[in-house]
Amino acid sequence: MLSLxxxxxxxxxxxxxxxxxxxxxxxxxxxxxxxxxxxxRLAAWQQQRADPAEPVxxxxxxxxxxxxxxxxxxxxxxxETIYGxxxxxxxxxxxxxxxxxECGDDGTPEMDRAVAFTYPSESGTTEFTNxxxxxxYQYAVFDQAPLAARSLAAILDGLGSVVSDVRVLAHSLxxxxxxxxxxxxxxxxxxxxTRVVMLDGAEFCVDAAASFFGCGFDVLNxxxxxxxxxxxxxxxxxxxxxxxxxxxxxxxxFEGLGGNDRWLDLQLDSDTLRSWFxxxxxxxxxxxxxxxxxxxxxxxxxxxDHWACYTNDGNRALMRxxxxxxxxxVDKLRALGVPxxxxxxxxxxxxxxxxxxxxxxxxxxxxxxxxxxLGNGGPNG
Length: 381
Known about the structure:
Layout: E1 2-7, E2 11-16, E3 19-25, H1 36-48, E4 56-60, E5 114-118, H2 125-130, H3 136-160, E6 166-171, H4 173-185, E7 193-199, H5 205-212, E8 218-223, H6 228-234, H7 252-255, E9 263-267, H8 271-278, H9 308-311, H10 313-324, H11 330-335, H12 362-373
């Protein structure tokens, strides 16, 4: 596994094993192509892989992780949890490495194919209030994820020059980081990027519609309308920057997207979809036991159903195949009649909807929050 860490600051730095690979000035929000040090590190890793023709999977974690913390038990460092090798973490179904084919559930090595991208996605009260936000989630959504997306775009750009097949696995806030990276890459999308799997995405639907429209690769988007984190958190905590109840506040993991030929929404809590997979109708003929509800307690907040997509064994089998199986393409799934889509009243209404501007300065953010507090910035204000 190749571990790449984005460290924020006035000049953000992408590092590998403590060595700086590329700088990203915070004041410059434009695309930054992969620089020689980053490209060389990616090429060196690619050359030492046992089978360089096998796909590379870039993993993008979500909210409340911090790679600056020691990778010890109980820390928020993603290298200790979702990027950890079983039996650390002790529950194999907390880690993504078996999903991307890096190792088995018991930790047995399989294929060196994972790129673990990490960035700080949590903060303390002082940090987010000093930045002019009302809560740590706003700060993560509108500051931390878009800044990290610049380095992720550079990684995808660099991989595109040394690898023939690049895929992405992203969860929750990581789908926003991924989407914003795709936006930066729009005019120079690497042909090597072939597939993206989004799990319980917290990216806004209107942003995804704009970023992925006309994309030349498959996007498989896992929707779960029993997901309490998305229903009560992601679609509410960004008010007043995104007005509650409006189309710009909808997120892809709860509402789906629609309106894109290369994007397929798969709603885990749809009885029709679950029956279709259980009957072995998928292109690979495998019977998948899909379940939107967490059926184990490996995650401390399992009951919120935000992690069931990769902790339940049946879901894990499907996610791995959606990511790696060559038969599980959007075209083949649709040709066999997969019941895609989402049963949201907003479904398919996002193309062409304007993306609300994000207040660029601390003063502008504080003004928006103050107006909301006075009742002038609510959903009907």
